[in-house]
Write a structure and sequence with these properties.
Blueprint: E1 3-11, H1 15-26, E2 30-35, H2 38-43, E3 51-56, H3 64-73, E4 80-84, H4 89-97, E5 102-105, H5 110-142, H6 146-156, H7 161-168, H8 172-186, H9 191-201
Parallel strand pairs: 1-2, 1-3, 3-4, 4-5
Helix pairs in contact: 6-8, 7-8
Length: about 210
């Protein structure tokens, strides 16, 4: 299925291979860009959309495995499919442990590569949705006042309004108001949802 918003990046120093891969990927309606080296890819502009990288292991200058490590260290999250004519088991293990979607040996079946690309794009979509959701929850949390954050922590711990009031040295009515603001600003429909948000943010209940 054609998806104009997705991109497949191909890095291979063999011009013939780049052309063949570009033709194959375009044949299923996907946008594709090709690069002759890892450095060329790093200096290029990438759209903020679901994408994956079809990457040759052996490249001039920065190797495919080196690029995988650089991207990881830079916090650039893009699923990688390795293709190589010179693969070995240690190399495959290294790539897969570092998060590669697939490690294919040239010449690989067209369908195997297309299946791997589909899997990689699905993975990137899911990861992007997860990061966007986390960013949204962080923005909501940032809107809480210091006192509301205190109340949130005690609510998440399961304390009743009366107990929270005693803990903070304030009235139960004031706690109810703060609690309402916390639920409203966090857009939490229940205590369970508020707890899930706290877990997602990695914020201790006592903070």
């Amino acid at each position: 299925m054609a998806e104009a918003e997705t991109s497949v990046f191909v890095i291979d120093d063999d011009a013939g291979m780049r052309e063949a891969l570009q033709s194959l990927i375009r044949s299923v309606g996907l946008s594709v860009e090709t690069f002759a080296s890892a450095r060329e890819f790093l200096t290029g502009q990438r759209p903020d959309a679901p994408a994956c990288l079809v990457l040759d292991v052996r490249l001039p200058g920065l190797s495919g495995l080196d690029l995988q490590r650089e991207l990881s260290e830079a916090g650039i999250h893009i699923p990688i499919i390795f293709i190589t004519g010179h693969g070995d088991i240690p190399m495959t293990v290294q790539a897969m442990k570092a998060g590669a979607v697939e490690f294919l040996t040239k010449p690989c079946r067209d369908q195997d590569l297309l299946d791997a690309i589909s899997q990689a794009l699905d993975r990137d979509r899911a990861a992007r949705e997860q990061r966007a959701g986390l960013a949204e929850v962080r923005e909501r949390y940032a809107q809480l006042t210091p006192r509301e954050r205190e109340v949130r922590g005690l609510v998440v711990r399961g304390l009743l309004n009366k107990q929270i009031a005693a803990e903070l040295g304030t009235s139960e009515v004031t706690v109810k108001l703060h609690r309402y603001q916390v639920m409203h600003k966090m857009q939490a429909k229940s205590l369970a949802e508020l707890v899930r948000m706290a877990v997602k943010l990695g914020i201790p209940a006592t903070q």
